[in-house]
Amino acid sequence: MALTTTGTTARESAAATNGAEPAPAGISGGHLVAKALKAEGVDTIFTLCGGHIIDIYDGCVDEGIEIIDVRHEQVAAHAADGYARITGKPGCAVVTAGPGTTDAVTGVANALRAESPMLLIGGQGALTQHKMGSLQDLPHVDMMTPITKFAATVPHTARVADLVSMAFREAYAGAPGPSFLEIPRDVLDARVPPDQARIPAAGRYRASTKNAGDPADVEKLADLLVHAKKPAILLGSQVWTTRATEPAADLVRTLNIPAYMNGAGRGTLPPGDPHHFQLSRRYAFDNADVIVIVGTPFDFRMGYGKRLSKDATVVQIDLDYRTVGKNRDIDLGIVGDAGQVLAAVAQAASGRTDNGAVARKTWLEELQAVEEKAKRKRLPLQHSDASPIHPYRLVHEINEFLTEDSIYIGDGGDIVTFSGQVVQPKSPGHWMDPGPLGTLGVGIPFVLAAKHARPDKEVVALFGDGAFSLTGWDFETLVRFDLPFVGIVGNNSSMNQIRYGQAAKYGLPRERVGNTLGDVRYDEFARMLGGYGEEVRDPAGIGPALLRARESGKPSLINVWVDPDVYAPGTMNQTMYK
């Protein structure tokens, strides 16, 4: 900082002018937090203000870290999760003690199941008031430990930056995930001489996580794929987490292997690529002789592994050794970075005289026939002129609307289940959903993170009306920060995924218990908060409304009334309703 003619800093002069005391010597805990965030490459924090944490704001201002303030701490945590997914850098949310931290719990839990690296910093009462009943005092670390990879209290100001760096190190160990730090108020506000505070240097305090797996296992997988007659590969979220798009695409194209994608892995191959398959997955998994599962666990989405043929040779590649072979026996497990492993497998297969690619042409044609049959069966619904609007027509129009630069975000139950069958991102990293925790309310926070981090991209978000209601007030945050996006509410005035289950289990007389919402005009809500809003009841009006929302240059909500008595196949097939 520059000195004035009297030898004082400009900041001290400003403080004197405003009647404030000059800052004491040393560096505060809040400023150490900001320096540690800067060293990790964090350029934005998502927050809701509180008295316990304001010194972090002061440090962020000095370090050039942007502060995005929201209306609910759950939004801050979800936005930090979304920021990590979009940028590949860790997200960071800063919340106050007590209810500020408990409000963020859902966002942290979602990041854990989604394997998203983020740091939540929570305030805490002063150490000098420990166990005395200070304002908003709660056992945050005890609460956060089960849903984080690392949770700790910072015991001294000199340790602040060191523990922030430690939290990031743990967030990236194995499969990534969230960390939590609570910083007592007196620790955060106190100052220490800079030479007493360890501030780890950027890029020098944690190891590379790009493990290429056991070379012998890589060779074995290459042999399996080269000799497979009917292989199939599932590219899961870790393909995007590890930025493995190029090696994944190279492997499937070189060896002529049909690829299916789920989670953030969607978009690894563009629609129209001859190796991009979507609707024939069950058929492929029933008939394949080798199945490779990359970066997705055998959880409920995979039928806990039971949806794979018992006769197939099953290979699993994952960052986390605990995931490999969980819920289902496998023939080969490789722990490592998806990009490194897939590149090594392609290299190992490259020297073969015959890699089997030509012979697999018949297998791809067989799967393509299954795909076409499924598409033809659904096409009349995607073009339906029915009113209320058929959900398939809505998601079809959204898919047609997307461009190469459109990041698609799904936030809802039944309506987003429809979209999963139809909407296809055109590029890698352009699909966002909550992940396996199935959290509703991620939509607006993910929009906030995505549009802030990538202002060059268009953001398109589909909400269920129930899902939007959970965090929708932060639409105002998008208006306040001038972050335009195209939002669509598939409105059936119901929590329809649950309604279907109740009807199936208890009968039609009890289908409407605890799941029916009001007929809310979300388009008017958007206009009230300074955005663009439009209502659509005629299916022919969906496309034009989407174009007008895009052209408005504002945060927008298109309120589309969809048929409440139509359910997605995925909803009807959920085992919890059987």
UniProtKB/TrEMBL annotation:
- Span of domain Thiamine pyrophosphate enzyme N-terminal TPP-binding: 28-137
Cofactor names: Mg(2+); thiamine diphosphate
Using the UniProt annotation, give all residue ranges assigned to the region (Disordered): 1-22
Could you tell me the keywords of this UniProt record?
A: Metal-binding, Thiamine pyrophosphate
- A Gene Ontology MF term for this entry? thiamine pyrophosphate binding
Q: Where is the Thiamine pyrophosphate enzyme central domain?
A: 218-344
Query: Polar residues: which segments have biased composition?
Result: 1-11
Q: Name one GO biological process term.
A: isoleucine biosynthetic process
Give TM segment ranges: none
Q: Which residues form the Thiamine pyrophosphate enzyme TPP-binding domain?
A: 411-560
Which Pfam family is one of this chain's hits? TPP_enzyme_N
Query: At the top level of its lineage, which domain of life is listed?
Result: Bacteria
Q: GO terms for CC? A: acetolactate synthase complex
Q: Does the keyword Metal-binding apply?
A: yes
Record family assignment: Belongs to the TPP enzyme family.
This chain belongs to which protein, by name? Acetolactate synthase-1/2/3 large subunit
